[in-house]
Design brief:
The protein has one domain: Aminopeptidase. α1 crosses α2. The chain is of the alpha+beta class. The protein is globular, with a radius of gyration of 16 Å. β2 and β3 form a beta hairpin. Strands 1-2-3-4-5 form a five-stranded mixed β-sheet. The longest helix is centred in the N-terminal third of the chain and has 18 residues.
């Protein structure tokens, strides 16, 4: 038996007509994180897809933002949202590219889409001549951590949370 060939996809800049699909993927990301730790991460609501999609679409055209999608035809299979940030004394770091979101539809994972999106974000940030890229990933998201480690990222911080209520 041979392995099935991954379906083809292209990486392209997001466009306003991607709003609904981006919002649905963003809402999935919210739900997954909430499932990891319901006390730490916000819960999705019926409004989450519209709000998240609207937020992402507003990033299009901003010089400090990168929003790329992996698409097969008109279907968005995943996206990456990244940006350029200056020095951040609260995070104890200088200027950096920051990967904020990277998600691939669950039924399309392990086909190279996540890595292609990550590579596209890194390429889009490269002209800024930043000294580093940073990102955060949920402690329980081992699959994502493996992807990021394979791309040369290493652990530098551990977030700890204490509930006050």
């Amino acid at each position: 038996m041979t392995d099935p060939q991954p379906a083809s996809f292209t990486i392209r800049p997001a466009v306003p007509s991607d709003r609904t699909q981006l919002g649905e993927l963003g809402a999935q990301m919210v739900a997954v994180h909430h499932g990891f730790d319901a006390r730490r991460f916000i819960a999705p609501t019926p409004e989450t897809p519209v709000a998240y999609g609207g937020f992402l679409i507003r990033q299009i055209g901003r010089l400090e933002s990168v929003l790329r999608v992996a698409a097969a035809g008109d279907t968005v299979l995943g996206y990456v949202y990244a940006g350029v940030e200056g020095s951040d004394y609260m995070a104890l770091r200088g200027p950096a590219g920051v990967i904020y979101d990277l998600i691939v539809a669950p039924d399309r994972r392990r086909q190279g889409i996540g890595r292609a999106l990550l590579d596209a974000a890194m390429a889009a940030l490269a002209p800024h001549a930043l000294p580093r890229l940073v990102l955060f990933t949920a402690e329980r998201n081992l699959e994502a951590q493996g992807l990021f480690a394979s791309a040369g990222f290493h652990r530098t911080m551990v977030e700890m949370t204490r509930d006050l209520a």
